Amino acid sequence: MTFDTLIHSGTVVDGSGGARYPADVGVSDGRIEAIGKLDAAAAASVVAPGFIDMHSHSDVTLLDDPGGESKAHQGVTTEVTGNCSYSPFPSGAAAPRDLQRVMGSTMASEVEWDWTTMDEWANRVDANGVSINVAAQLGQSALRIAVGANEDRPATRDETRAMKRLAEEAIEQGAFSITTGLTITPSCYADTDEVVELCEAVARYDGAFYATHARGNPGWHVKMIEEAVEVGRRAGIPVQFSHLAITDSRVYGRGPEMISVFERAISAGVDIVFDMYPYTAAGIDLHQVIPVWVREGENEEMMARLADPSIRARARRETAEGADGREAPDWTAVVVSSVQSERNASAVGRSIREVSDDAGEEPAETVLRLIHEERDVVSAVFHNRVESDIRYFLAQPQGMIGSDGNAISPRGRNAGAVPHPRFYGTYPRLLGRYVRERPAVMTLEEAVYKSTGFPARRLGLKDRGLVKEGLAADLVVFDPATVIDRATFEEPHQYPLGIPYVLVAGAPVVWDGRHTGARPGRVLRRGE
Ligand SMILES: [Zn+2]
After folding, report:
1. How far is the CA of 348 from the centre of ligand 1 (A)?
2. Does domain 51-280+385-459 have CATH number 3.30.420.40?
3. pLDDT for 144-180, tens place per residue?
4. What region, left, alpha or beta, does residue 527 occupy, with left being phi > 0 and alpha being psi -120 to 50 degrees?
5. Which residues have a beta carbon within 5 Å of ligand 1, which is an ion?
6. What is the mean pLDDT of the chain?
């Protein structure tokens, strides 16, 4: 038999969680055509399904950087976008630029948003070309903005009806789920009932699910999971709990209380699982450390509040004490990742404490000044977790991997930023630090399952997530003895080691460690 590509004498870790085996894998016409099991001892290189990154925010970065280099080099072949309530569609009755104005600080891009629906956005991504696949979710903040419910109040009956119609349209066009960001404006203005009502509309569609960045308010480390369970139970919808972590030092080590909520829900028949990333720091918009009332409404309203001396003084006081009842931040632990203007470029890569010392101002004032001067386009890394919690959650069977990072190019528009290293290192870090190094948290088979077959199952992808004859040839070849991340908090724009080959639909995207520039990816649709 001849193939377009033959991966010779590999060790197949097939993504199901089952034991590895030695085999040749033949690829033709974009599909895995044949798997020839071998008697020989397993070879050094592992052949696995391409990683499916369950949690990304690459909705528009893939238009700026269609190569998706930071992810492709990790072996990621599908990015799941639209998380935390942020999606670049639908714009509904609002103009696309209104949606971009409100959400563009989080989904920063050179591209002008000129699409209105999921379909139009997908067509734009496909027409532009993209190296890896994209599985899109619908963000509930976008729905609120689309119907003009941008303020801190419940949605009206009419608005709710309009949001349900827009949600149904996006799901019919192939969005995989609806997502919330219940500490993020305007998503957080929805109470549980409002979320349930939207989810009921979505639950009618085969395979559609609910993904939530939960209401992680102080004291809510258990309650935030209970709310997600309640939504799943009442709406009859599967639940994906996003980026599970403990970010409040007062409850470090309390993971077992949280996992027991998952266990009880699952045994009561609620289909709830979670994703997480293997780092002890979060990546945030800097505005997440200031009080939520400062952020209400449109960007101009927020800027007007910051320009008013008495309002600013109150915001500064609350930020310093710990906004919305949170702990007072350790300002050495909050490091600026990116700004948009030249005048604050020197802050990038430095902690709020360092920047404030240099400027001779209080740290909370530095935070507000940066947000004000940058018109809210400031991101940061927040070192707010402990390694023991990360290891505990990684070991749980309900958890899969999602980087929460973007697909970017080190030479693209983010070249001057110092983003969270998860953009470049999540999967090699999992395979090196948590599988190979001792003590290991999980087996290689488990790590691959949490990165492929498990997310494919949640997404209902029938054609991906396994090394199996007939499936799409989205594959990664890596060396389990050397694979490791090299991206650091100081120098994140670094590709990992030990991942020489990545195929998307049979086409090489990474070959001998180099990105080929090929764009065989596309926007996937729910049900395929
Ligand atoms: Zn989130």
Report:
1. 22
2. no
3. 999 999 999 999 999 999 999 999 999 999 999 999 9
4. left
5. 84, 213
6. 96
